[in-house]
Amino acid sequence: MDDSTVMQAIRRLAQPFGSAEALDSLVAETKNATYVLLGEASHGTSEFYSVRAEITKRLITEEGFRFIAVEGDWPSCYTLNRYIKGYPDAAPHARAALSDYTRWPAWMWANREILELAEWLRSYNEGRPDEEKAGFYGIDMYSLWESMDEILKYLSSKGSPDLEAAKQAFECFEPFGRDEQSYGISASLYGEGCEDEVITLLSKLQDEWKDVHPADRENALSAELNAMTVQGAESYYRTMIRHDSGSWNIRDRHMVAALDKLMEFHGEGARAVVWEHNTHIGDARATDMEQEQMVNVGQLLREKYDNAVYAVGFGTYGGTVIAGRAWGAPPEIMQVPPAMKNSWEELLHRDGAEDKLLLFSREETVLDRKVIGHRAIGVVYHPERERGNYVPSILTRRYDAFIYLDHTRALSPVEMGLIQA
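Structure tokens predicted for Protein-L-isoaspartate O-methyltransferase (421 residues):
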């Protein structure tokens, strides 16, 4: 298939994005969806967050979506959730509610774009009964130590008879000094893991929220999700020492399990908006991930719920982004070079340097057979090594829709003093 055929297909699909009409058409496409998955091509681009926020507001106000689930840690996101829902002991303002986002890369959620969304959600929830309030939750599983701390805090506040059992379970982790790598090496190579202790603890907390006073149901749910996180993180760090694809699969399966638990908690008819990187929400079967026996959230949800899942991918041609040069390195504002020739982003730019919305039907198109590179920028980024940032993708099968933003800019972290320009 030559470029001209691809360009003709793009022109037939693409419509200008940015008007109320374009957003109307996208929201209309989600009418039958239980899960709307909103991606991003980087974790450090302002427009990906602000556009997702506008879509999410529409889904909440017009379609009754109950919660947002994000690629973030449960403990810190739950702090923000408590502020959003106006709990009596919540943070006094949104900026304070973001202060729990301290683990690198903090800019992913402690940014002005999320600050604005949090204030909107707080206002939306004000005066509504608890069962109608919109929530904000983290479904990732990196918070091994923080989740253990939260479990102990919860059990202590309740005078729970399970507190001593939890302390004993977590003693298994103490020799590793809150160092995930150290734990992973010991558990994977020397069989000195804490898997059994964690499973026992999780069984004690499972579904406890169903039997407590309504005012404390969400805190009990939080304890169970923290226990699920500890279990997932323990397995993840134990596995990643030997198997990259295996640890990836553990992580994405955990996120789906967390979503399932949140859906159960919110009751029949609940609908969720999911914010994650394209590599998580776009169906892995439409990329080279399948060859590596890797699955992701988008694939797993489609396999379970089929037409009840609507995935929206994002991309950009160029601009700026916030990222680090290495894991844990200070974040920097970096230039995003123009997309590589013949990538999806370059083809969309070639069609015209303006923002676009592409709606993909489930019907066959010529693009369904076209594997083309699609840019993915992580929290660690090296613009000079751009070639390695492209995922071979059949875009029309990876997503249900695609939002192309021609020129984008870096996120605005709450603490701008941390950023090196």
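The CA atoms of residues 59 and 65 lie 6 Å apart.
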